[in-house]
């Protein structure tokens, strides 16, 4: 047997915890649980890998709130019965901790987390390209996701079912196939249109169809087109302007679309007033200027115009 660099922490309940366990909202019976029984069958927690006692104590200090909730949830999942303030000080009043540094592994096999155990059952890892199996339906909108493709961004084990869940970001080809109506349906249902969380068993390995940069660009383009759709009437008007511009020229960026729209409706030159104070330059707040023409586009700052002070 070999020792492992993980500390064993025994969480022994004290009288206040036992009184809570035996309270009517939690226990709901006259069959009380003795303190001795709970202390004999105490919870044991393994810390992450660490070498020194001080490391273990620091970890426990920061982890007491989670340990507190873990113990409470093991007896009652109704949080309304829990103490309102589950502080480290209250934890120390309800539990006693024993920290043991000599921990032996009698088996010698790797200790896997639930996530790692689940990952070994599937040939899918974060960063992999995947395709959705046939028949998978998005729950909020009822959209059929069959054959949609993307990349696994991250994975986690569902704390309730233990199922392995992946967050998949759709690739550029999938994103470009989304119709305006479908995107609006996702937005109105408060659902994500650029990716989906789903069980790994609903995914198949696939070959990458684009680069990360292409996927990011497609996502940015769609966001620029549809970010306005939840802004009521003003948003609907902005959406219609951008929709018509993109329909006329699919290669437009959002700023291209605005330049085209405004260029067709503004009559140069015209008078305007500076309403935002400038960090530098000759223009001051409330100064009147004559706007002559559009002079360029900057992705970070928007549309530029040529102006003359005072007209």
How do the strands and helices of this protein lay out in sequence?
Blueprint: E1 2-3, E2 6-13, H1 15-21, H2 24-27, H3 35-40, E3 43-49, H4 53-73, H5 88-94, E4 95-100, E5 104-105, H6 114-120, E6 129-132, E7 149-157, E8 164-170, H7 172-176, H8 180-188, E9 195-199, E10 203-205, H9 212-226, H10 232-248, H11 254-263, E11 270-273, E12 288-298, E13 302-309
Helix pairs in contact: 10-11
Could you write a compact summary of the structure shown?
By secondary structure, the chain is of the alpha+beta class. Helix content is 35%, strand content 24%.
Helicity range: 25-40%
- Name the beta content range: 15-25%
Tally of individual domains:
3
Largest sheet: 5 strands, antiparallel
Mean pLDDT: 84
Overall structural class, as computed from helix and strand content, comes to alpha+beta
Tally of DSSP helical segments: 11
> Termini, distance in Å?
88 Å
Can you tell me the residue ranges where pLDDT is under 50 for at least 5 consecutive residues?
none
DSSP, total strands: 13
The SSE order reads EEHHHEHHEEHEEEHHEEHHHEEE
Biggest sheet strand order reads 9-8-7-6-10
Shape: elongated
């Amino acid at each position: 047997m070999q020792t492992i660099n993980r500390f064993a922490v025994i969480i022994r309940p004290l009288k206040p915890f036992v009184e809570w366990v035996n309270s009517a909202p939690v226990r709901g019976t006259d069959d009380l649980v003795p303190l001795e029984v709970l202390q004999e069958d105490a919870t044991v927690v393994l810390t992450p890998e660490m070498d020194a006692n001080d490391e273990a104590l620091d970890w426990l200090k920061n982890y007491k709130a989670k340990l507190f909730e873990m113990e409470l949830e093991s007896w009652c999942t109704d949080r309304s019965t829990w103490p309102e303030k589950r502080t480290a000080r209250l934890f120390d009043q309800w539990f006693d901790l024993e920290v043991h540094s000599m921990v032996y592994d009698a088996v010698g096999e790797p200790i896997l987390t639930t996530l790692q155990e689940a990952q070994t059952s599937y040939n899918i890892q974060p960063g992999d390209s995947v395709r959705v199996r046939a028949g998978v339906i998005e729950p909020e909108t009822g959209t059929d996701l069959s054959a949609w493709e993307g990349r696994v961004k991250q994975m986690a084990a569902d704390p309730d079912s233990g199922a392995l869940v992946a967050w998949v970001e759709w690739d550029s080809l999938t994103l470009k196939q989304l119709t305006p109506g479908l995107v609006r349906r996702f937005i109105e249902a408060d659902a994500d249109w650029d990716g989906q969380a789903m069980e790994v068993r609903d995914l198949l390995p696939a070959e990458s169809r684009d680069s990360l940069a292409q996927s990011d660009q497609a996502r940015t383009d769609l966001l620029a087109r549809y970010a306005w759709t939840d802004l009521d009437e003003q948003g609907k008007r902005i959406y219609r302007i951008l929709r018509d511009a993109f329909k006329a020229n699919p290669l437009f960026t959002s700023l291209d679309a605005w330049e085209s729209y405004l260029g067709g409706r503004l009559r140069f030159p015209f008078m305007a007033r500076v309403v935002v104070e400038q960090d530098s330059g000759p223009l001051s707040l409330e100064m009147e200027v004559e706007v002559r023409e559009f002079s360029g586009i900057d992705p970070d700052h928007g549309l530029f115009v040529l102006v003359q002070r005072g007209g």
